[in-house]
Amino acid sequence: MNLTVKDAAKLLDVSEKTIYRWIKQENIPAYRINEQYRFNRAELLEWATSQRIKVAVDIFNEPLNEDTVLPTLSSALETGGVFYRIEGNSRNEVLANVVEHLRLPEEVNRDFLLQVLVAREEMESTGITEGIAIPHARNPIVQHINRPSVTLCFLEHPVDFKALDGKPVHTLFTIVSPTVRSHLHLLSRIAFALRDAVFRDLISRHALREEIMKEVRRIEMSIGQQLVAQGGEGDRR
After folding, report:
1. Could you give all domains of the chain from N- to C-terminal order, each with its CATH number?
2. Could you read off the pLDDT of 30-41 as tens digits, one per residue?
3. In whole angstroms, what is the distance from residue 221 CA to residue 120 CA?
4. Its pTM surpasses 0.90
5. By CB atoms within 10 Å of each CB, which of 6, 42, 109, 175 scores lowest?
6. Catalytic residue among 136, 170, 183, 185
């Protein structure tokens, strides 16, 4: 989907003037087409997540096909699982151990998936701030996957992911998805959840799985309530 400056400003809850300032500073991922700027929705959300920029709840309100059912973050975490004390003294060692813990069909080539994740980190770190990274492939489609998942891993030792704030990473949310739409949706949900102080506290102290899942469900309920208050999926304003 090609977004205009106006669309980008609405989704990031800032003025168009701010968007142009970010373009001039070459901070925000933008494309110049026929003398006008356009944005890719997935790239824009990835960038906003890495910058810890608040996104408007409308970003969850993208029109769907009738047969499309998007995963909840809680269901994706149930599928992917929560793991503790993941070993590794470097970014690549940690990623290798995370890939081994992923709940994937036997047909999936884990070595190839690891190569994809490492290549993504080489291109641009998925480390955001406060010791959190969100490893995922730039192209989120992974063969033989029919259910999107988010795997939450807490590391035994923090490692350098070249995050924006320079802090070592202690927590990874790894997204594996069969479609771009579900990938973007889950990235949105993680970004939204990380704005919640209670959720961030649970993550920072590597809380029990049951506590984390309970808080995720509470956050999802708040998203649903906001969408209802704004008119639901039919209200695009």
Report:
1. 2-55 (1.10.1660.10), 73-228 (3.40.930.10)
2. 888 778 898 877
3. 32
4. no
5. 6
6. 136
